[in-house]
Specification:
about 675 residues, seven-stranded mixed sheet, about 45% helix
């Protein structure tokens, strides 16, 4: 029989107290007397302005092996109690904590901090306080500090004296507070919902949390602030459903409103508040074998069709003609077909496994993820350039010594050719692939790897059939001089592929990066040309110039860097990045200003931008009304923007401010915008 939450918590507390009493001699002898968390009380400014605020930080540093607790300690532990002694005219807000992490001790879930952390508290001063007034502030903290074996209640008394002044902040202290603020989870900016189902021990709670589909979530977990609702010890399932996350776990009660933090990766999270609503059921935890089979067949078909892509077809054609040229030795043909297939499938499995590992680590990547790296693009550019020049007849691909004996012809050469075909195929995409590989990313790892192997098998299938079906080999044309002309012709799509890769390099690394890549390709080409001349002269060291040129070409890799993102390109046409200095300058000119604050992880922000702000009607109205537009991107928690947002009465984004000429304060627009809100103000001259 399951106990009600309040009884469970009481029993946990009694167990902790008993453990403390039973182990007191041991920990008294085996540990230092404490305190086991060093706490410093720090004020952001010693001279807060009347009518303003000042933030206090409790800079907390647990001893090694000890931990403190979050606002909600979980299934065990005790939250810190703050007892303030404040002067008249000063009030203290609720403490704000950084994202905790999970600690399971004896199957009991704890929400803790095992490293440094800093709760923040905001003090508000009455406007009537006279400058120079001394403000003695003191607080008594009662908290629990534990190891995995013992717990010790501790008390700390901290005090600080402030003086009413101008609110100036020392730059060094501001930097410390900016770092602490960035650790506090910001509000997600959109409404969440929850639903309950089941009875008794089978009660389940599901939450729907707005979160953009293209943002990484890592090992997502919901830390509840509202107590007596969620079974802390129960596992949680988190899945994506478009632009939201669905969380499911065991329920212990209900509430009119559930608050908490959705943690998306180490130290990063967002505060949410959920109200009752419709939340869809999460997909079954088992494998949908029908969908998996469809995805596998799609990957197989997509792999087959990749063979006609310009980056793969020349390699396949040459390998097929090599079988015709070699004659009809059945055993050798089969060995080469199997080796080629093994090379293709292993590269596809390696790329797929790395992709799944990166996604499990929180990265938002998809198939051909490596092509997002300009250094990988440079390597591909050199490789494809070499293949194109080889097909054009400039040189023959040979390797020195043991490498040549390993890979020239036979199974070794077939394996390397298959691996090359799979690697070069990654820039290409064909029908069926997108759906199949997209399904692989949400299926269990073994099934996903089977789908990546299916893609490789499809890519290798034509050559595999040639190796095992003699009738197909007999249909291949007889060797002749036409093969040389065909080979030269096949160099054209490879040159086009190299051109496309150079364009991609320019997009990722800018004109300078593209120039560097083309220079490396030219140098490599000259080395291969030299090697080709030595080959025709039957030189034993013909491979040397091409190898040296390759080394010099690869030396450009560390010099290739992604071009800086053009932030203005992501904003409304004519908009500028927000800064308080630019806002002041525009207002001094008497111009109306529309300032909006957004973040990539804010779904409401993106909806407003797509359906309202970035529309023809609004763009034309803002332009016609000569309205200046400033955009504050808070995706990375810019502390300067955070302070400005807080100063305007908001804890997070979206925030929309309209500054009319002559008005000292802005109009704070609703979080859900309409076009008429903006077009009406712009048409009225910004007022």
């Amino acid at each position: 029989m399951r106990l009600v939450p309040s009884v469970t918590l009481v029993l946990h507390a009694l167990m902790l107290a008993a453990a403390m009493l039973l182990t007191r001699p041991a920990w008294a002898q085996g540990t230092s007397p404490g305190p086991h968390i060093a706490i410093d009380l720090v004020a952001e400014t010693d001279r807060p302005a009347p009518g303003g605020t000042v933030t206090l930080a409790f800079d907390s540093r647990p001893d090694a092996g000890w931990h403190g607790y979050w606002l909600n300690p979980g299934a065990a532990g005790v939250a810190t109690r703050y007892d303030w002694t404040l002067p008249a005219g000063v009030t203290a807000g609720a403490p704000r904590y950084p994202v905790p992490h999970r600690l399971i001790v004896a199957d009991i879930m704890n929400y803790v901090y095992e490293g440094p952390f800093a709760p923040l508290v905001t003090l508000t001063l009455d406007a009537g306080l006279a400058p120079g007034t001394r403000l003695p502030v003191s607080v008594r903290l009662d908290y629990l500090v534990c190891t995995n074996e013992i717990c010790v209640p501790e008390r700390a008394e901290r005090s600080i004296t402030l003086t009413v002044g101008d609110g100036a902040v020392d730059p060094g202290r501001r930097a410390r507070f900016d770092a602490w603020r960035q650790a506090i989870p910001p509000p997600i900016g959109s409404a969440a919902s929850f639903a309950l189902s089941g009875n008794g021990d089978a009660r389940t709670i599901r939450l729907a949390i707005p979160f953009p589909a293209d943002r990484p979530i890592g090992d997502a977990y919901f830390f509840p602030l509202t107590g007596d609702v969620i079974d802390y010890d129960a596992p949680q399932r988190v899945v994506r459903d478009g632009d939201r996350l669905l969380v499911e776990t065991r329920a212990t009660g209900t509430a009119a409103r559930i608050e908490g933090v959705i943690a998306t990766d180490a130290g990063r999270g967002f505060a949410i508040a959920a109200t009752p609503g419709d939340v869809p059921a999460l997909p079954s935890g088992g494998v949908d074998w029908g969908a998996a089979l469809i995805a596998l067949l799609g990957a197989l078909a997509g792999g087959v069709l990749l063979n006609v892509m310009p980056c793969v077809f020349p390699i396949l054609s040459l390998k097929a003609l090599s079988l015709a040229k070699a004659g009809g030795e059945e055993r050798q043909a089969r060995r080469e077909a199997l080796a080629y297939t093994a090379g293709v499938v292993l590269v596809c499995l390696a790329l797929g496994g790395l992709l799944l590992a990166l996604r499990a680590g929180g990265a938002s990547v998809g198939w051909a993820f490596q092509l997002q790296n300009p250094q990988v693009i440079l390597i591909l550019l050199l490789l494809v350039t070499a293949i194109a020049l080889n097909l054009a007849g400039l040189f023959e691909m040979t390797l020195p010594g043991p490498l040549a004996r390993l890979t020239d012809g036979g199974s070794g050469g077939a394996f390397m050719t298959g691996a090359l075909a799979a690697f070069v195929a990654t820039p290409c995409s064909g029908p069926f692939m997108a759906a199949a590989l997209g399904a692989a990313l949400v299926l269990p790892v073994p099934v996903a790897l089977a789908i990546f192997a299916g893609l490789g098998l499809g890519l290798a299938l034509p050559f595999l059939l040639l190796g095992f079906v003699p009738a197909l080999r007999r249909r291949l044309p007889k060797p002749g001089t036409w093969m040389v002309r065909l080979r030269h012709l096949l160099s054209v799509p490879m040159f086009l592929t190299a051109l496309a890769l150079a364009w991609v390099l320019g997009q990722q690394a800018g004109v300078g990066g593209m120039t560097l890549g083309l220079g490396a390709a030219l140098l490599f080409g000259l080395g291969l040309w030299w090697s080709g001349g030595l080959q025709r002269g039957m030189s034993a060291r013909a491979w040397l110039p091409g190898t040296l040129a390759l080394v010099l070409g690869l030396a450009a890799i560390p010099l290739i860097r992604p071009a800086p993102a053009n932030a203005a390109a992501e904003m409304l046409a004519g908009a500028e990045p927000f800064s308080e200095a630019r806002l002041a300058a525009l207002r001094a000119e008497g111009r109306p200003v529309f300032a909006y604050f957004t973040a990539d992880w804010c779904v409401t922000c993106k909806v407003n931008e797509r359906t309202v702000i970035d529309t023809d009607a609004v763009r034309n109205a803002l332009s016609g009304g000569k309205v200046a537009v400033l955009v504050g991107d808070w995706t990375d928690g810019d502390p300067a923007l955070g302070r400005f947002i807080e100063a305007n009465g908001r804890a997070g984004v979206p925030l929309y401010l309209w500054y009319a000429p002559g008005k000292p304060e802005p109009d704070v627009l609703p979080q859900i915008l309409t076009q008429s809100m903006l077009t009406g103000r712009a048409g009225a001259g910004g007022s």
